[in-house]
């Protein structure tokens, strides 16, 4: 398969049945033929970023044995923003489709051959499947089979207090899993927020696969079973707020999910649960941690890294809805995220620390990888305002995940990243995780928790389909009601 863009061609081909290496060759219309791979590839994908628009290229992929794979492609300028977004979404979707174990449905944390599974990425991936079907990138039959395999893995995987060989405990799941065995990876925590992101994807799949095909009925049954099994009260450890997690070796993590951050989806699922939900008082406790502040002329509930303003919004449409806190400020959480996005950009334009490249179309501070050598951080939650671990590292998912909030600034930024830095940033799965112009560092990896918000929020911006179907869920509607949400004047 070839995905073409403005001065780019991305190739994906069927992997051989055993470990093998590949070489990619390209032939142009004038008959010239070049080998594009200086070293053999270990993965069945390649991004050719040294092409000319309007020229038809013939690609040939050769492995150690078997017939070569061939395809032709003609790169061309984007006809408009919509065509650019289609490619951005398609390449992000390819991560979830191709960087997953097709047998059990687990999605990799990142695009490395030895990556473990991230259950949060798997949750984003469940929503990605429906988007892929709607855009014609996969068939409904193929998507249905992948979702069914994923939900079966989590429903049938062993649970218990054992520190090894289990997928979770009391309906919660471990943050990372072995990609093949679906068991706890090393000594990671039983993660409340990552379980919530997984369950949001499962709930979305439940709403998407609403047909009478036996597999679609089974998807709904499995999603219900996963949501009903979660012991919400156990994760509070006797308090009024949820713990961030639990280790079989040491018990509950002392830190609690108190606002504001990405955990709105966690509390809404807990409040809307069909069996033994958390009480409305837990939402009141969650909002007690809010910090209302004004930065660059914008007043909002602050949380420095942008992902905290995005993850819950991937599924929940907060437009025209407000809880007691937001109603008292005369806005909703969508507007709050818009202001946080604009303030993040304003901080980068001001650039108080003097990093190279920051500007109106080059901004976006959130959790991401980093150079890792002094004075720069490695993986870290970066953000602003207030400034938090700002070391000059920008993540494209920051602008991508905020696309519906502020398209007038996010879309030009994404186009700038592609146009100016394509040869270093663009991969077979879209944008890489992060870059730092001061350090001249470009992340080689693509992360599932980056591509999920990019794909889903672009879909919400373009069609609103994810929001519309997710908001039909009785669990979410009940969770919002019990949290005290009501229609605002603008939302009536």
Count every helix, treating DSSP H or I runs of 4 or more residues as helices. Answer: 14
Give a short account of the largest sheet.
Answer: 5 strands, antiparallel
Helix-and-strand structural type = alpha+beta
At the first level of CATH, the class of the largest domain is: Mainly Alpha
Number of domains: 2
Key structural traits:
492 residues; 2 domains; alpha+beta; single chain; Immunoglobulin-like; 14 helices; Glycosyltransferase; four-stranded antiparallel sheet; five-stranded antiparallel sheet
List strands and helices in order, with pairings.
Elements: E1 2-5, E2 8-12, E3 22-27, E4 33-35, E5 45-48, E6 57-63, E7 69-73, H1 81-98, E8 117-118, H2 119-134, H3 140-156, E9 168-169, E10 172-174, E11 176-177, E12 190-191, H4 192-208, H5 214-229, E13 245-247, E14 251-252, H6 264-272, H7 281-287, E15 292-295, E16 298-301, E17 321-322, H8 324-329, H9 333-350, E18 367-368, E19 380-381, E20 393-394, H10 396-400, H11 407-425, E21 426-427, E22 430-431, E23 435-436, E24 441-442, H12 448-462, H13 465-470, H14 474-482, E25 486-487
Antiparallel strand pairs: 1-2, 2-5, 3-4, 3-6, 6-7, 8-11, 9-10, 10-12, 12-13, 13-14, 15-16, 17-25, 18-19, 20-23, 21-22, 23-24
